[in-house]
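task queued by scheduler; priority normal; single chain, no ligands, no partner chains; default sampling; output format set to structure tokens
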Amino acid sequence: MRVLQRLFEVGFRPIAIPPYESALCLRRGECAAVLAPVENGGLRVLAPGSFLVDGKFGVRVKRGEREVFVFKQKELEATPERLKELAEFQKSMDEVLAEGAAQ
């Protein structure tokens, strides 16, 4: 519970993302990640952070010379600003999860 409380304190919020309804999906800004509980009461990353594309969990892929986040036929350009936001999202989540694992 402390790990989850700390995640909420740094701005993460729960969200339902199909097909991950039975897992803990957290969102901050336009980024989301999927977490799962571990035996000692902590959390682990089940699906690493990505951008939401039309409210769905996007997959980062390379299209020719550019990178995009994709869900089905919808794409979202992986701009430097979005990649920075995603890196900050993942770093913040990793720090909180590491703190929880150390306790």
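post-processing summary
- The two ends are 12 Å apart (CA to CA).
- Residues 80-102 form the longest helix (23 residues).
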